[in-house]
Amino acid sequence: MSRPALLPRTAPFGDAERAHLDAALGSTTALQRAWLAGFLAGLDAASGAVPAEAPAPAAPPRAAEPLTIVFASESGNSEKLAGDVGKLARKNGFKPKVVDFADLDVPALGREKRLVVIAATWGEGEPPARAVRAYGEIMGEGAPRLDGVEFGVLALGDTSYAEFCAIGKRLDARLEELGAKRVLPRVDCDLDFDKPAAAWIKDALKALAPAEPAGNVVAVDFARAGSADEDVEVSREPVTVEVIEHVNLNSSRSDKETIHLALAFEEAAPAYEPGDSLELYPENDPALVDQILRAAGLEGDAALRQALLAERDITTLSAATVERFVKATGHEEARRLIDNGEVRAWIEGRHLIDLIETYPAKLTAQHLSDITRPLPPRAYSIASSRAEVGDEAHLTIAAVRYTTHDRARTGVASVHVADRIRTGAKLKVRVKPNKHFRLPKDPATDVIMVGPGTGVAPFRAFVQERRATEAPGRNWLFFGDRHFTHDFLYQLEWQEALEDGSLARIDVAFSRDQPEKIYVQDRIWEQRRELVAWLDGGAHFYVCGDAKAMAKDVRAALVKAFADVKGLDAAAAEAAVAGLERGHRYQQDVY
Ligand SMILES: Cc1cc2nc3c(=O)[nH]c(=O)nc-3n(C[C@H](O)[C@H](O)[C@H](O)COP(=O)(O)OP(=O)(O)OC[C@H]3O[C@@H](n4cnc5c(N)ncnc54)[C@H](O)[C@@H]3O)c2cc1C
Ligand SMILES: Cc1cc2nc3c(=O)[nH]c(=O)nc-3n(C[C@H](O)[C@H](O)[C@H](O)COP(=O)(O)O)c2cc1C
Asked: Are 304 and 338 members of one domain?
């Protein structure tokens, strides 16, 4: 059946043109037509091509509705999603503004009409480092009233953490408490957030859309439309790489094992930058897979074995895993863990195998699939610069081994690499860009790098890049580990770098070489005068590695150094370091 014509005979087109336009527009929705009308009006306005005898539009273009999208992000996931919301919102006739929590003007939030919040949780239920100030202001007593603001929150997290999505949850509750109106329920995403996040974003834009007066025209924001991102888009598709070097950087007498991996791309390396990471898709330990299959009574199912090896997370045990297990099996004793509120304490230090062995039940392959989540890739800082290594990428991976509840445990990805990967093996990886961990734009700027343990990895990339590009700025590295003789990662390379001038200085802290423990923050304190002089001269300061203690201690040492060297009180010294952070001269990549 033919559709009724949209365009009247009086429209300023020939018959053939009218037929074409009718065919093209016949299947569009009202919103798409409104957008198109605004788009064409804006196009002509922007190019000045408004015909002298243009017929008056049926209705004047309505200003695009403002939408503010704020994100709290550490490793870029929330930031990427916020960008996606912005792009989709613009297509849907909004005038979006994407704001990092780092730059958020909290007192002005009350003036917003519509707010999308995308927030990740870090540490143990903490906000991402760049979001700490604004998060504190929103949670604090001086927060503005938000009556009249409509909002929705998308929370990012990882169910393996006890404080799952804590920051998104707290922000969601706080915005309501401040008077804002929640227009759609919060969604808490695990590491496989692509699908739930995309669905939430679609729902959010619907829920936040203003009531549509019929026949109205939406003005398109031409100033921003099509504005390109500053960074070059790097392909996010996983690619296969070949391991061409696999070396343990620790001595055979060390109690640590840190693997240097050199990976060769089959084609040109993706355009990674110093500061980016590679996500590595690991395989589970085959011995653990077999143990799980035995405990579940599912030995001999080859397809399931393969899925458990490469696709499912068979180690993480979260409260959600226990709930899914109880739902699948109806196990009464395991249910009591939940009913008695003991589940959080019980899962501490335990894995899926402990659950299945402690609460035996006949499981099916479908049960195991329902209970587990997809196996997430692990991020590793890239330890090389393409300017020096060409189509390769290098990683520095510390093997994770420990014992809990009398059972020896191994990290999925790090021990896969340490024990089961050798030169010639193939791995699947993809680049994870980090535009908040970048060398200074001006190559003459000095850099100070604090990277104990595997935290040194990105600084190997920084030094390679600055050497290959002959950057005149000075490079100063603080490195630390347990023992000088066993754990000095890339020692020869640093010595060569000192000789060829690509390192101006290196200060090391080997914690267990003397009775009292010495860490990088102690070296920072010792060198505080020189360090503050470098910073006064415009140096950038970088920290990479352990988030739990090291990164906080290093920041505290720098605040103390400012106070001491410049005679500042604690508040002024804190403000000096916060100023470095705001100016993007203090950057960290910690985990
Ligand atoms: C941006 C970024 C960059 C990174 N760069 C690097 C890098 O350059 N090099 C590097 O080695 N790692 C790096 N990591 C960490 C890396 O991604 C992995 O988290 C790490 O290798 C562990 O992964 P896994 O699969 O081996 O261990 P998993 O199977 O994920 O197990 C790790 C978990 O085991 C538990 N655990 C570990 N030790 C103990 C213990 N002693 N007692 C009790 N429980 C314990 C903890 O719950 C921990 O979360 C980076 C992380 C991020 C986010
Ligand atoms: C060191 C570290 C600590 C984390 N802590 C938590 C946590 O306490 N709770 C949680 O739900 N997720 C936690 N996560 C998971 C992150 O929230 C998750 O990876 C998220 O997708 C990161 O988003 P972002 O890239 O926007 O920072 C943690 C991740 C890392 C690497």
From this structure: yes
Q: Could you read off the pLDDT of 30-54 as tens digits, one per residue? A: 667 777 776 776 676 666 655 555 5
Same domain, residue pair 278 and 310: no
Looking up residue 270, the CATH number of its domain turns out to be: 2.40.30.10
Residues 361, 307 share a domain: yes
> Is 404 assigned to a binding site?
no
Q: What is the CATH number of the domain that holds 128?
A: 3.40.50.360
Range of the domain at 18: 1-55
pTM of the model as a whole: 0.88
Q: What number of other Cβ atoms are within 10 A of residue 23's Cβ?
A: 12
Mutation probe of ligand 1 site: the residue of 158, 278, 312, 378 with most atoms within 8 A of C-beta: 378
Distance CA 568, CA 555 (A): 16
Of the candidates 195, 419, 160, the one whose C-alpha atom is nearest the C-alpha of residue 313 is 160
Q: Quick one: which ligand is closest to 130's CA?
A: 2
Answer yes or no: is 396 a known binding residue.
yes
Q: Whose CA is nearest to atom 48 of ligand 1?
A: 411
The finding on whether 563 has its CB within 6 A of some atom of ligand 1 is no
Rounded to whole angstroms, the Cα distance separating 289 from 315 reads: 10
188 CA distance to ligand 2 middle (Å)? 12
Task: Single out the residue in 352, 371, 390 at which a domain terminates.
Answer: 371
C-alpha 247 to ligand 1 mean position (Å): 19
Distance CA 464, CA 444 (A): 15
Angle, vertex CA 450, rays to CA 272 and CA 492, nearest 5: 80
| Residue 172: burial class (beta carbons within 10 Å; 0-12, 13-18, 19+) | buried
Judge whether 161 is annotated as a binding position.
yes
User: Which of these ranges, 107-111, 227-231, 270-274, 527-531, has the smallest mean pLDDT?
Assistant: 227-231
Q: pLDDT for 407-446, tens place per residue?
A: 999 999 999 999 999 999 999 999 999 999 999 999 999 9
Of 536, 487, 526, 486, residue with least CA distance to 505: 526
What's the CA gap between 502 and 493, in Å, rounded?
10
Query: For residue range 309-330, what is the model confidence (pLDDT) as tens digits?
Result: 999 999 999 999 999 999 999 9
Give the chain's domain count.
5
- Pocket of ligand 2, beta carbon within 6 A: 73-79, 120-125, 128, 156-158, 161, 163-166, 191, 547, 591
Same domain flag for 184 and 161: yes
Same domain, yes or no: 187 and 94: yes
Rounded Cα gap, residues 274 and 546, in angstroms: 19
Per-residue pLDDT, 22:
79
359 in a known ligand binding site: no
Give the pLDDT confidence score for residue 55 in this predicted structure. Answer: 55
Residue 414 labelled as part of a binding site:
yes
Q: Per residue in 206-251, pLDDT tens? A: 999 987 655 555 555 544 444 434 445 666 789 999 999 999 999 9
Q: Are residues 189 and 245 both part of a single domain?
A: no
Centroid of ligand 1 to alpha carbon of 400 (angstroms): 7
